[in-house]
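Hi L.,

As promised, CSC1-like protein RXW8 isoform X3:
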Amino acid sequence: MELSALLTSAGINTAICTILLSLYSILRKQPSNVSVYFGRRLASGRYRQKDPFSLERFVPSPSWILKAWETTEEELLTIGGLDAVAFLRIIVFSIRIFSISAVVCCFIVLPVNYYGKMIHHQHIPRESLEAFTILNVPEGSKWLWCHCLALYIITCAACILLYLEYKSIAKMRLDHIDGSPPKPSHFTVLVRAIPWNPDESYSDSVEKFFTDYHASGYLSHQMVQRSGTVQKLMSDAEKMCRIFKAATGEHSCRQGLMRCGFCGGPPNSFKILSSEPDSVRGKSLGDLDLARRKVLQSSNPMSWVTDMAPDPHDVYWSNLWIPYGQLWIRKIATLMAAIAFMLVFLIPVTVVQGLTQLEQLQQTFPFLRGILKKKYFSQLVTGYLPSVILILAFYAVPPTMMLFSAAEGCISRSGRKKSACCKVLYFTIWNVFFVNVFTGSVIRQLRVFSSVKDIPAQLANAIPLQTSFFMTYVLSSGWASLSCEVMQLFPLLCNVIKKWILRIKDDSPEGTMSFPYHTEMPRVLLFGFLGFTCSILVPLMLPFLLVYFVLAYFVYRNQILNVYVSKYESGGQFWPIVHNTTIFSLVFMQVIALGVFGLRKSPVASGFTIPLFIGTLLFYEYCRQRFLPIFRNHAAEILIKMDRRDEQSGKMEEIYQQLRSAYTHTETCNDSRRSEISNHHEKADSIPDPEHVKPGLIHPTLGRVPVSGIRDVIAWLSLLFTFQGKNLAK
């Protein structure tokens, strides 16, 4: 691929970015687009309507960029939470490290690559991109020490910046926990795998167990279980409920209560610890520590399993009914499904690889030779089209991985999103990098992997050959995707249909979204991985990456300030994923450097790379021991201080009252989830007497469903179908 083809792709993406950003600065000023571009402000009630007749509305302006620049980190922490700040710290870290890398590699490594071989260079726009890679350095060259020096500078700078960021995020997490108000999750554990006792109900078993073994801390519990034999009937009756709701004018359904033994099957239970002043002191922390340290509650590890409960608004109710014994089977099944999906995804990757190789494309499709001989079309096909096809195919990945993460049995929404983030990250790095690095042929890929010891050398040869694809992917999936992110194309289209076709003028904040960490974080980390891997091999990529991260800094700040709502908070638990991915990128960069120095017959450079490799692994282990426990557990020191403050301030009675109804889950008729909740705050006598219950079925999703009404509707539908049948017969 020639440099002119890369410049063509850069020009196309620059034009797209300029047009979309200018259009965004105009559309965001229109009153009809408030719900699209100011969803967070609309949800918080802080949006002020501007003059709809101002001419300024139709003039592009960089005011949103200035606002994003002026916002402090403290304001972002208040608005978006610690997760948003941790995500933006990834951008800041990337800007810093790749600024250093760009200076070092573009002024030291790039000239060495370009003038490595004594050949006649063409005019720069017509120069092949391979002339700017390490492939242009001859074997045994003494200038390879420049690449080794750059490797040391990048690795040391990255480790220093990583340590500072990890330390800062860990401190912010501790401050976040210490400064947060009392939450129900601080006093609650989730209990699963409750053994069945034919002589008593599940609720009685829970009360008896925790009264016997945790009497000083036990307050009450809630049973959450899936409806059993009437599940199908309730699913069918849900449609009828909508008809009744419209006919009777009811707008909500009452929460139903029924005994746990009605549904059968192993339920889940919330155990809420006591928050009374005379029983909490010195007790609640010890009981919570049982769940935190995975202490066995019984001699059978598969019974009475306890975990820390998520916050009430973070609970993923649909998964609470899943028996504990099924979790390991579900994880294996989702792993196999993810691998199968990854293999299926080889098809679009193979198509992309075929488009990047112009000569093979002409041989496969002879009728395209005339078109591909034209310079503009050949540059468009090889420089822009492959990355666009791969980007379009990748739109199916995040929803699929989110579905897999839900099937695993995650009990919290933040945990589900974190799991999906890891899956999308692995999937993206594998398909965008490793599959594309080798060839478009699956058979040849298997032949490359058949010799494990040659993998570093094969990668060192293959990565520079894929320079053109990686650069165009950064331009298309990086620059253009940020413009599409700030434009919010799909919500904008939905808003146009709503306002101008359906004529619905109401700007309701109900459709506001939380930040899509499972899509944006893997993309940012992928570009960081490409930057580290290609820094000394293809230094020409670093300026394009740097532009991407600078643009991402403003775009994501703007989106957090105006668009996305922080619905739940994980306390910065995404940062260990960032740290591990960055360490993997550094180690992989060093392994590739070993292969390069071996191919270029430079034993001195190879020898100096080995200590760097060992030092990076030692740094990783130190950070894992020093900071990772802070993100996995809560510090007892901080929790004890929080308890003492609550006791001194007299808030314990208020906390006690909040705990009773914190995890009450009430759903409307059109909700698709099926969960039953029975509150057992004091005694089981809160359950209604079956003899005094009015006729009908009680269901938490549908409320009280009148059986007689269902019969009438079914009879009416049967009569209608009978009339239709007679008419058809005539």
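Residues 360 and 476 are 24 Å apart (CA to CA).

Thanks again for sending the construct details.

K.
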